[in-house]
Specification:
By secondary structure, the protein is an alpha/beta fold. It contains 30 helices and 37 strands. The strands form ten sheets. The chain has a seven-stranded mixed β-sheet, covered by helices on one side. Strands 32-36-33-35-34-37 form a six-stranded mixed barrel. Helix 9 packs parallel to helix 25, helix 10 runs parallel beside helix 19 and helix 13 (475-488) packs antiparallel against helix 16. The chain is globular, with a radius of gyration of 29 Å. The chain starts with a strand and ends in an 11-residue tail after the last helix. The structure holds iron/sulfur cluster (SF4) (3 copies) and FE2/S2 (inorganic) cluster. FE2/S2 (inorganic) cluster binds next to loops.
Length: 977
């Protein structure tokens, strides 16, 4: 008799090395019990945790029980009756998916009676199912087909002539998947996936008995509440819900595990391929961040990688008013290198710099900062985190000693109170939002601080306990007022503070927040939030059990962004909510690799691992590894590069994967700076807005075409694996060159500048990072292959990574409190600019939209609109759908209006996914006092009805049309009709 011992799944014992690539469907979820029971199944003895289903225990024991309605991502349902078993001493034939194990049970899964029951059940299913298996898109990948085979069904006695659903109409409204009800077995897996996994509740089973059917809203999927996460498609055991790409191209033949290139959740996917063609992206059930879930972007919006707009040929030109000349790689490298050498000879070393992107892999960022420091000879390297999370880096380093989130995403399942500040997880971080919603449905409390009613405020089965609807720009008032309540009402966790924090700094902080001027009654007036709500929210946070904070760019993109981050850390420390599961300070990173690009030393003052360039020991380490003298002067930040360009001292820029024209504030200032430079080198997939001002274009490779790693918001380093050949070797004349991954392009540019970077593979770059960076010491591609992903720090003490940080002590030793005096922004409303514009993102689009605009996601969002409160709209005579001019002190643009009470009176809101919207034409140069992160969230504006584009938009149309023509491309920009 075999004796089989159960091992817990990986995310519940984060340090163990269980098999991350096990794709087995165990039928029902794992039990979390620590107690085990022993039973016998088909004469095999097995020990499993109490609460495990007999089905799961059987599958662990290697015994396959037939099943249709069960899958291990969903709670058991017990509707199909295919999984029946016999239990000695018990009557009847219980469903193994809904029957838990018990000590000493003797279970039989294969008897002739069970075989009869199962065959009979399958017969009924098949009698109402199209017999088109051979031509069905799911042929070979269909659980119904598998089960018919498994139970030995050979004939259907009932015939197919009776009443059936075979003529039910297909719903093809969703751009990515179809719903063919004729194939539906009403197992309800889709409905349960939408509820349990995604938390959207878009699907229901309507009718009873024979009339039961799956319904999406009142008409179809596209018109329903569905957010196209794909969970139902994945859960469906038949071809009822199936990806259109599978219908078009057939079932995949091999699969490669990689990481989503969109947001900071960092979902793991299996790229299912046919040769070099991606057929579908399927979320990896063992992905540490996503556990098999996905959102519409990662799941479906990958078609941009082969979009016709991609530029696959290197190009050069003398002036931005010239046509581009397509050249070979060698000529492009030697031209770019000669320009850098010429410019440095003429204007000095500091006249050249580089910008990296959070869309780049860690390895790419590392080689760019190495190129700037070791070859350009300065520290003039910056990254797009400058305009998003740089205050997180500063604020968390100051207070707790490490510029990173403290938890795993799974930690939220231990939270009792969840505080979301300036973030919109359902749109920005959808997979994590689903997990958070699950915890909220279990009963955790929710506090939201946001000027706008984000979806989480009130969504199916989730309602915020407090929505603190503060005015944009008053975050620091909020955090000080909450601190005031906690201190003055004796809600401080004194044991924690005494043991873990610098007492003097705490005393100074508590004296400060206790001042009457920091009371909710005083600061509430600035925020526009009733004092009682602030007091109640503070009490809940301090006394409601494990309290965790999740925040986004609504915290950082302010003139007091760094102060607010420090205030958040103060709040967590004062209440003892840091250093264990269920609590902590969690910056939700916008892009996939914000954390990684900062870790890799892409800021002008820090080497990889956040070590200051003036630190002699660190500099010596890098000097001896790179064999080059390095500067100890912090280099230029992006805003300094732009200012210096206009002043005439900054002349050349190497910009990799970032589109500063669209994503940085005050667009006209950015374009003026670029026009002032003599050589702008852009490396990207598309001729983006910045490339229109470039002199050299290096065509980049998409995430599907390269190897490397991304680091998500939980410090989780995940592998990016090449699934297809880089397209940037494809030439219009058919004479193909060798395509290159982006790190190779940087290395070749370095070689052309006379400094050899001879890595054979991205893994060698990570080896160098590990050698030179203590927090990455234990990281390697080999270990990532073994473990699936690793949360840094990963070193001798933590060889399998660190899920929760600051457990016994803070990285800086004692936690330090900082005073958070509220200083109103200088961006004031006036009679001329009486409204505040704030910005954000939506689910279907991503950042500057360069990727998602080139996918069918435009079905949901093809233009940026401005949201305005009905009161403000009627005061201006503006109706739904009107075009309005939005004027600020920096510029003016025109957008279509959406009237909604989601925004409060006095506040308007827009997204920035489309370049022709010019959202950043109106944002100002105001920025965070510590990091220069722009104050994107607060711009004083006026709104008025107009009937033509702004001057800037008209210029943009003409200019971009000409620039695209210079590269042989069409104008894509949407026009006002
Ligand atoms: S659509 Fe698929 S998952 Fe949903 S009930 Fe029908 S067969 Fe089951
Ligand atoms: S795609 Fe996602 S949101 Fe839409 S119905 Fe399916 S599970 Fe629900
Ligand atoms: S965009 Fe974010 S949440 Fe969506 S699949 Fe990608 S990593 Fe996951
Ligand atoms: S799998 Fe158990 S009842 Fe359907």
């Amino acid at each position: 008799m075999d004796d089989i011992k159960y091992s817990k799944p990986k995310h519940h014992q984060a340090h163990s090395r269980t098999s991350f690539d096990d794709q087995t469907d165990y039928g029902t979820p794992a039990s979390q019990s620590d107690k085990t029971v022993t039973l016998t199944i088909d004469d095999r003895e097995i020990s499993v945790p109490e609460g495990t289903s007999i089905m799961r225990a059987s599958i662990i024991a290697g015994i396959n029980v037939p099943k249709l309605c069960a899958t291990d991502s969903l709670e058991p349902f017990g509707s199909c009756r295919l999984c029946v078993v016999e239990i000695e001493g018990r009557r009847g034939y219980p469903a193994s998916c809904t029957t838990p194990v018990a000590e000493g049970l003797k279970v039989h899964t294969q008897t002739s009676k069970l075989a009869d029951i199962r065959r009979g059940t399958m017969e009924l299913y098949i009698s109402d199912h199209p017999l088109d298996c051979l031509t069905c898109a799911a042929n070979g990948d269909c659980e119904l087909q598998d089960m018919a085979g498994a139970v030995g069904l050979r004939e259907v006695r009932y015939g197919y002539e009776g009443e059936n659903h075979l003529k039910a109409e297909k719903d093809e409204s969703n751009p990515y998947f179809t719903f063919d009800p004729s194939k539906c077995i009403v197992c309800s897996r889709c409905v349960r996936a939408c509820e349990e996994t995604q938390g959207t509740y878009a699907l229901t089973i309507t009718g009873r008995g024979f009339e039961s059917k799956v319904a999406a809203g009142i008409s179809n999927f596209l018109e329903s509440e569905c957010v196209s996460c794909g969970a139902c498609v994945q859960a469906c055991p038949t071809a009822t819900l199936i990806e259109k790409t599978v219908i078009e191209a057939g079932t995949p033949e091999h699969s490669v595990t990689t990481t989503c290139a969109y947001c900071g959740v960092g979902c793991s996917f299996n790229a299912e391929m046919k040769g070099e063609e991606v057929i579908r992206m399927v979320p990896n059930k063992n992905g540490g961040a996503n556990h098999g879930h996905s959102c519409v972007k990662g799941r479906f919006a990958w078609g941009y990688a082969t979009h016709k707009d991609r530029i696959t040929t290197p190009m050069i030109r003398k002036s931005i008013h010239d046509e581009w000349r397509a050249v070979g790689w060698d000529e492009a490298f030697s031209y770019a290198a000669s320009e850098i050498i010429r410019i440095q000879a003429q204007y000095g070393k500091a006249s050249v710099g580089g910008i990296t992107s959070s869309r780049c892999t860690n390895e790419e960022v590392y080689v760019v900062q190495k190129l700037v420091r070791a070859v350009f000879g300065s520290n003039n390297v910056d990254t797009c985190a400058r305009v998003c999370h740089s205050p997180t880096g500063y604020g968390l380093k100051q207070t707790i000693g490490e510029s990173a989130g403290t938890q795993t995403f799974d930690s939220v399942m231990q939270s009792d109170v969840i505080f979301v500040i300036g973030a919109n997880p359902t749109d920005g971080h959808p997979v994590f939002a689903s997990q958070m919603k699950r915890r909220l449905r279990e009963g955790a409390k929710l506090i939201i601080a946001d000027p706008r009613a984000i979806d989480l405020v009130n969504s199916p089965h989730v309602k915020a306990d407090y929505h603190l609807k503060l005015r944009p720009g008053t975050n620091v008032a909020l955090i000080s007022a909450l601190g005031h309540v906690i201190v003055t009402e004796n809600l401080v966790d004194e044991d924690f503070v005494k043991g873990r924090c610098e007492w003097d700094s705490f005393v100074a902080w508590s004296d400060f927040v206790a001042l009457p001027q920091n009371s909710p009654e005083v600061l509430g007036l600035a925020m526009g939030v009733p004092a009682e709500e602030l007091r109640a929210a503070a009490r809940l946070f301090a006394t409601g059990g494990n309290a965790s904070i999740y925040y986004g760019l609504g915290v950082t993109e302010h003139s007091q962004g760094s102060t607010m981050v420090m205030g958040i850390a103060n709040l967590a420390m004062a209440t003892g909510n840091i250093g264990r599961e269920g609590v902590g300070v969690n910056p939700l990173r916008g892009q996939n690799n914000v954390q990684g690009s900062c870790d890799m030393g892409s800021m002008p003052h820090e080497f990889p691992g956040y070590r200051h360039v003036s630190d002699d020991a660190t500099r010596t380490l890098f000097e001896s590894a790179w064999k080059k003298p390095l500067s100890n002067d912090p280099g230029l930040r992006i805003p300094n590069m732009l200012d210096n360009a206009i002043d005439g001292t900054f002349k050349a820029l190497y910009c990799v994967g970032e589109d500063i024209v669209q994503s940085d504030p005050n667009t006209q200032h950015v374009t003026h700076a670029l026009e002032s430079m003599e050589c702008v080198i852009v490396q990207d997939l598309f001729l983006n807005e910045t490339a229109m001002f470039a002199h050299v274009f290096f065509p980049g490779a998409s995430f599907l075409e390269k190897s490397g790693t991304f680091t998500n918001a939980e410090r989780r380093i995940s592998p990016v694996r090449r699934v297809m050949t880089p397209k940037n070797g494809e030439r219009a004349d058919g004479k193909h060159e060798q395509g290159m991954e982006d790190w190779e392009i940087t290395a070749k540019l370095s070689n052309a500048l006379g400094y050899d970077m001879n890595y054979a593979h991205a893994s060698e770059i990570m080896d160098e990072v590990a050698e030179l960076t203590p927090t990455f010491k234990g990281v390697s591609f080999k270990k990532l292959d073994e473990l699936g992903s690793i949360q840094w720090p990963c070193n001798d003490e933590q060889p399998f990574g660190t899920p929760t940080m600051h457990i016994d002590e803070f990285v800086r030793g004692k936690g330090k409190f900082f005073l958070t005096e509220y200083v109103a922004t200088s961006e004031k409303v006036t009679p001329k600019y009486p409204l505040i514009l704030t910005t954000g993102r939506i689910l279907s689009q991503y950042n500057v939209g360069a990727q998602t605009r080139r996918t069918k996601n435009v079905t949901w969002h093809h233009e940026d609109v401005v949201e305005i409160h009905p009161h403000d709209a009627s005061e201006r005579g503006v109706k739904e759908g009107d075009w309005v001019g939005i004027a600020s002190r920096a510029g003016e643009t025109v957008l279509r209006v959406k009237i909604t009470e989601r925004v409060q009176p006095g506040v308007i809101y827009t997204t920035f996914h489309h370049p022709e919207s010019g959202a950043n034409v109106i944002t100002t140069d105001n920025s965070d006092w510590a990091t220069n992160c722009p104050e994107f969230k607060v711009t004083a504006v006026q709104v008025s009805r107009v009937n033509q584009l702004s001057d800037w938009q008209q210029h943009y149309q003409t200019f971009s049309e000409a620039q695209l023509a210079f590269a042989g491309k069409d104008l894509e920009a949407a026009k006002i009709d």
